[in-house]
Amino acid sequence: MKWARVRVPGSFTPAETANIPAAWRWTRGDAGIVIAIIDVDFNPDDPDLSDSVRSPFDAVSRDQDVGGATLFGAHGTECARIAVGRRPTDRPTGAAPRCSWMPIRIGTRWDPTAQRRAFEYALRCNADVLCCPWGPYGGLAERGSPMPEPLRHWVERCARHGRAGKGMPIVFAAGNDRENVSLNGYASHPDVIAVAATTCDDRTTSTSNYGGGISICAPAPSAQPGTVGGLALSTSASAALVAGTIGLMLAANPTLTVHNTKSILARTADKIGGRSVRLRRDRWGHSYTDAYDQHGHSAVYGRGRVNAAEAVRVAAGS
To answer: How many whole angstroms separate alpha carbon 208 and alpha carbon 177?
Structure first.
């Protein structure tokens, strides 16, 4: 297994930890690659994002008004910045600053009709990547939150038939409930990429979900002045960073299938943690460890921490 080097706490940003700047030697994205982001609200007029918005959609009111600069809007806006943000001076702030993005507002996590419309719209408008930095509220009961059947249908259609049959990579936040991701019927769907959160020094966060359904992990920002939207050390931020990484991969090689994309992400991820196995307990008292199994999978880190430069390098040569 390929282990990452030990990182000094406080010395790296999430993008640096994930090797994003090195990936820009190949590409910073392409305006023809559209990353759809589904969230509760957005501020599409944000100066980091307004130039790259494509086909916004409110899945509640079924119009193009996806929200304003509200507290909830900050969450979707911050996630978009991590994935595709750019400044007016062209100093990139996101993983794929030259990709476009499609804000799709669902208003609340409890509206399955809006969720279904959001996926249907992303498929109809030919999005290339779908980022869902949200999920059902966890920690409420150990019975979990299954994905509604109508939504499952559209998730599977996007994943298997999107991008003219190549398949649309769907990235979900694993959740911040300190419980098994199998209780989250959204992130644990076999067609999605479930992203756990780590710190910039390659440690797990105290709340990130775990389990066999974790695909990969990515660093999230620490709490800092001016941070809004509740993204500090959250799987929402980690999912957005992985979605941006996939945008870079598709910009480097638009012919990649969803299977290719998932395989490359897994194969190029850096193994972190798991060396000194420590027993952990979740919110329900169940025990687990971060050890990697014989297939190279950890319940805490998935296949490892995303390495954007390696993923883009391999994608470009595929």
So the answer is: 6
- Residue 206 buriedness (CB in 10 A; 0-12 / 13-18 / 19+): exposed
The residue type found at 169 is: P
Please tell me the predicted confidence (pLDDT) of residue 278: 79
Q: 14-273+286-316 has which CATH code? A: 3.40.50.200
Of 311, 201, 200, 302, nearest to 251 (Cα)?
311
Specify the pTM. Answer: 0.93
pLDDT, tens digit, 9 for 90 and up, residues 34-70: 999 999 888 888 888 989 999 999 999 999 988 754 5
Chain centre distance of CA 112: 20
Indicate the burial class of 69 (C-beta count within 10 angstroms; 0-12, 13-18, 19 or more): middle
Average pLDDT rounded to a whole number, residues 176-186: 94
The pairing of strands 170-173 and 57-58 is unpaired
Residue with tokens 């969450």: 75
Phi, psi of 126 (to 5 degrees): 60, 45
Domain ranges of the chain: 14-273+286-316
Q: Give the residue among 34, 14, 188 at the shortest CA–CA distance from 94.
A: 14
